[in-house]
Design goal:
The protein has an eight-stranded antiparallel beta barrel. Helices cover 11% and strands 65% of the residues. The longest helix is centred in the first third of the chain and has 23 residues. By secondary structure, the protein is mainly β.
C-alpha cells in the first residue's frame, strides 16, 4: 500500500480559526439575535472519478464519511460557508490481458465550501433551502493499492469543486443532500481525472 501526505500546519490553522469564529459568534448570539445558523453535522458520501479518455479504466464509487461545521447567515437569501473533513475513496476496474482488476484510492480531505442559498419554503419549525457553493479541497493524506496505475498516483494537494444541494430544517435538526463535481484535476494531469461525490448529512442547529 502506498501513502502520500503533506504538511498540515495550514490545515490546522484553518480549523483553529474557524472554531474560534464559531465561539465568538455564539457569544454574540447569546447577547442579541442575529439571523445566523451554526450547524455541526456528520454524514456519508459516495465518490468516484471522472476520467477523460480512459480506454482500459472504469471508475467505481466507494463509501466514505464526513464531519464538520456549516454556517448560514440570512433569513431568506443565505450567505453560506463551512469547513469539513472528508474520508473518501474511488476504485478503478482495470482491464488487462488476463482479467478485470479492482484497485482503490482513498484520501482524507479538508473541504471549505462558500456560496449562497435560498429558502424556498419557510415556517417556524420547517424550512426547505437550496444552495450553490464553490469548494476548496485540501488533501491531508492519501493512500492507494499497490496495483493502482502509476500515472494516477499523484494526488493533488489542492483542487476546486462546484457543489449544488438541497436542505431541510426540521425544528433544530437538519437533513442535507448535495452533489459535488470537481472542476480541477483531483489526481494527476495524465488522464485528467476529477472527483465527484454525493453526500448525505445530518446536523443540529446551535
Amino acid at each position: 500500500m502506498q501513502m502520500f501526505s503533506i504538511s498540515s500546519w495550514k490545515i490546522s490553522s484553518c480549523c483553529i480559526a474557524f472554531l474560534l469564529a464559531i465561539l465568538c459568534t455564539s457569544t454574540v448570539k447569546a447577547q442579541d439575535y442575529i439571523p445566523l445558523v451554526i450547524n455541526p453535522k456528520v454524514g456519508a458520501n459516495f465518490s468516484d472519478l471522472v476520467i477523460k479518455d480512459a480506454n482500459t479504466l472504469r471508475a467505481a464509487s466507494q463509501l466514505g464519511w464526513n464531519a464538520g461545521f456549516d454556517f448560514r447567515f440570512g433569513t431568506k437569501l443565505l450567505l453560506m460557508g463551512g469547513i469539513h473533513i472528508y474520508g473518501q475513496g474511488s476504485a478503478l476496474e482495470i482491464q488487462d490481458s488476463v482479467s478485470l482488476r479492482a484497485q482503490s484510492l482513498r484520501s482524507s480531505q479538508l473541504k471549505i465550501p462558500f456560496g449562497v442559498g435560498y429558502k424556498v419554503f419557510r415556517l417556524d419549525y420547517f424550512n426547505v433551502w437550496v444552495y450553490a457553493n464553490g469548494v476548496l479541497n485540501l488533501t491531508m493524506h492519501s493512500f492507494h493499492d499497490d496495483g493502482w496505475p502509476t500515472e494516477l498516483a499523484e494526488v493533488s494537494q489542492s483542487s476546486l469543486g462546484a457543489r449544488f444541494g438541497l436542505g431541510f430544517d426540521i425544528s433544530r435538526f437538519t437533513v442535507e443532500l448535495n452533489y459535488e463535481q470537481g472542476i480541477s484535476d483531483y489526481i494527476s494531469d495524465a488522464l485528467s481525472a476529477r472527483n465527484r461525490l454525493v453526500t448525505l448529512a445530518l446536523g443540529y442547529k446551535l
